UniProtKB/TrEMBL annotation:
<feature type="transmembrane region" description="Helical">
    <location>
        <begin position="170"/>
        <end position="186"/>
    </location>
</feature>
<feature type="transmembrane region" description="Helical">
    <location>
        <begin position="102"/>
        <end position="124"/>
    </location>
</feature>
<keyword id="KW-1133">Transmembrane helix</keyword>
<dbReference type="Pfam" id="PF02653">
    <property type="entry name" value="BPD_transp_2"/>
</dbReference>
<keyword id="KW-1003">Cell membrane</keyword>
<keyword id="KW-0472">Membrane</keyword>
<feature type="transmembrane region" description="Helical">
    <location>
        <begin position="249"/>
        <end position="278"/>
    </location>
</feature>
<feature type="transmembrane region" description="Helical">
    <location>
        <begin position="64"/>
        <end position="82"/>
    </location>
</feature>
<dbReference type="InterPro" id="IPR001851">
    <property type="entry name" value="ABC_transp_permease"/>
</dbReference>
<feature type="transmembrane region" description="Helical">
    <location>
        <begin position="217"/>
        <end position="237"/>
    </location>
</feature>
<protein>
    <submittedName>
        <fullName>Branched-chain amino acid ABC transporter permease</fullName>
    </submittedName>
</protein>
<dbReference type="InterPro" id="IPR043428">
    <property type="entry name" value="LivM-like"/>
</dbReference>
<feature type="transmembrane region" description="Helical">
    <location>
        <begin position="31"/>
        <end position="52"/>
    </location>
</feature>
<keyword id="KW-0812">Transmembrane</keyword>
<feature type="transmembrane region" description="Helical">
    <location>
        <begin position="7"/>
        <end position="25"/>
    </location>
</feature>
<feature type="transmembrane region" description="Helical">
    <location>
        <begin position="290"/>
        <end position="310"/>
    </location>
</feature>
<feature type="transmembrane region" description="Helical">
    <location>
        <begin position="131"/>
        <end position="150"/>
    </location>
</feature>
């Protein structure tokens, strides 16, 4: 059978998704739309974390820190110039007079997050395993502390509220598509194979001439860019960003999405991110009715334990499912079933 182009399949899926987004935007109530938007944002976060944790084999918990940087930068750039002198009196005059459109502000937020990741990455990424996890977890508290104490720039613990509600399904869907495409192309490129080689055997990769530190920092910064963009989308969806909007608990939830989906699997990370977001939302009324608050986190922990015991590589491992192969197998089974049925009738 002729090999179909992955790019063609991607554009076909993107077109179908655009139609579904149009239908949802026209016919669903704001609460359901917000849940769908959170699904898209979590997909962006899980897939981008997969670049660092899945492709390169780093154990980073720093995504909430990069979301905080991206959220604040985007919020400051999109705030109306008339409100900035009152809310943020220490802002430079040139920045206080700016009122950027949403897209450049999101890109700026992502670039600032990537810059922080690159600067922090030089000392931090020399660590390994749980030492790296603790260091990136500490980055969350450092960024939260800066956001709390620089109240002339960030409004301190009060945060920035009343942000313009700029995020909608189209913005989330567009950035989700871009994240999936970039990660897919990266995984199947020479750079992606270099990252996978570092994850599998760092010493062997170094002996073959792979620049270990440079590749690690690049993966760390690229994941941080999309995390910063997701932070900006989140802030302008809920119209609020505070120093504690993105906590270390959220960092563990993102890691769980990557582990359950399969470390290195883009499809698995995206699918599990969507499932866990919906499941968490559906369990909230159950928690309130029963009075067992936090039971959703308990169920999540049990699910992780079961996956680690019975399927340690996650849902898909490092592989990506071939949709066309699945369709071909399903059609083959249907044809076989129809042929057997006709033979019995004869």
């Amino acid at each position: 059978m002729e090999r179909r182009s992955p790019l063609l399949a991607y554009f076909a899926a993107a077109l179908v998704g655009a139609v579904l987004v149009y239908i949802a935007s026209a016919g669903l109530d704001p609460y359901i739309l917000s849940i769908i938007a959170f699904i898209g944002i979590n997909v962006i976060l899980a897939v981008s974390l997969n670049i660092t944790n899945g492709f390169t084999g780093l154990f980073s918990l720093g995504h909430p820190a990069f979301m905080t940087v991206g959220g604040y930068v985007t919020a400051i750039l999109t705030l109306p110039a008339a409100r900035k002198p009152h809310l943020l009196p220490d802002l430079p005059a040139w920045l206080a007079q700016m009122n950027w459109p949403f897209l450049p502000a999101l890109v700026a937020g992502g670039l600032c997050a990537a810059l922080v990741a690159a600067v922090v990455g030089f000392p931090v990424l020399r660590l390994r395993g749980h030492y790296l996890a603790v260091a990136t977890l500490g980055l969350i508290f450092i960024i939260q502390g800066l956001a709390t104490n620089l109240d002339g720039y960030t409004r301190g613990a009060l945060g920035l509220n009343g942000l313009p509600e700029l995020t909608n399904l189209w913005w989330v869907y567009g950035w989700m598509l871009l994240t999936l495409y970039v990660c897919w192309k990266l995984k199947h490129s020479s750079l992606g194979r270099t990252m996978l080689a570092i994850r599998e055997n760092e010493l062997a990769a170094a002996c073959l001439g792979v620049k270990i530190t440079r590749t690690r920092i690049l993966s760390f910064a690229l994941g941080a860019f999309f995390a910063g963009v997701a932070g900006g989308l989140w802030a302008h969806l809920v119209t609020l960003v505070t120093p504690t909007s993105f906590t270390f608990l959220f960092a563990f939830q993102l890691v769980v999405m990557v582990v359950l989906g399969g470390t290195g699997s883009i499809t698995g990370a995206a699918l599990i991110a969507a499932i866990l977001t919906v499941a968490t939302e559906l369990l909230h009324p159950v928690e309130e009715a029963v009075g067992l608050y936090g039971s959703s986190q308990l169920l999540l922990a049990v699910a992780v334990l079961l996956v680690l015991i019975y399927r340690p590589k996650g849902l898909f491992g490092t592989a990506e499912p071939d949709l066309f192969a699945w369709i071909g197998k399903w059609q083959g089974r249907q044809q076989t079933h129809s042929g057997s049925k006709r033979q019995r009738e004869v």
